Amino acid sequence: MTKKRARRDSAKKKEDILKAVLQLFLKKGYNATSTNDICTAAKLAKPTLYYYFGSKRNLLFTLHYEHVTKYLRPYLEEAANIQDPEQRLLFMIRNYTKMICAHPELRFLIHETLGFKDKYFAQVKKEWKSHYLLLRNTIADLQKAGRITTDVKPSWTALSLIGMITWTTFWFDFSRKEKINEIAESAVTLASHALNLQIDSGRGHLAERASATSEKLG
Q: What is the C-alpha to C-alpha distance for residues 51 and 45, in angstroms, rounded to an integer?
């Protein structure tokens, strides 16, 4: 077997394990899932599991980091490239809502990870913190420009918006994906009214066009 094929087979094996484990975690929860459960679901022996991931904890980290790489980073990169803070704010609210609603596993990954303190999860939290910082700075920029209310702190406002949208995962019916766009627009409306943002129709259309790649989040 060539090295290239061996690497390809190894990557495929890891992918298959992660898929099986994610479904198991979603069904039973992280703490209630044993390594025996994982081995049974993924159809592998414990030595194989440890060879690829080392521990159940590292499995969870790998799953979360994969989602950060696949969904969070592209969303943040596109948001950061939007120069106008109003367009950026609308884009972030709209597309974070879409991302959260399109991927029910994010509820599990975000909330399950909050209590971990080790260096691996610090890396994941740093990625999510960059989301908060970009939103906070966007709100601050709009306040400086006199385009939204100055009666609220940018930091608290950013955290409140992220919390509101993330909480959607606890009440949204994930089988009704046709409602995602409607919920995203509701989030935009709520945030705009709360911040007293008068959305310029031209900017709004630009923001919608800027979110074209957000379809990848689904």
A: 10
The answer to whether 91 touches 207, Cβ cutoff 8 Å, is yes
Give me the residue label for tokens 């969070």: 72
Render pLDDT for 5-15 as a digit per residue (tens, 0 to 9).
656 667 788 88
pLDDT tens sequence across 97-131: 999 999 989 999 998 887 788 887 888 999 999 99
1-54 belongs to CATH 1.10.10.60: yes
d(CA 125, CA 116): 10
User: How many angstroms separate the CA atoms of 116 and 59, rounded?
Assistant: 13
The candidate with the shortest Cα–Cα distance to 79, out of 168, 186, 158, is 158
The residues spanned by each domain of the chain are 1-54, 56-217
Instruction: Write out the CATH class of domain 56-217.
Output: mainly alpha
Closest CA to 150 of 100, 96, 195, 116: 195
Cβ-contact 87, 207 below 8 angstroms: yes
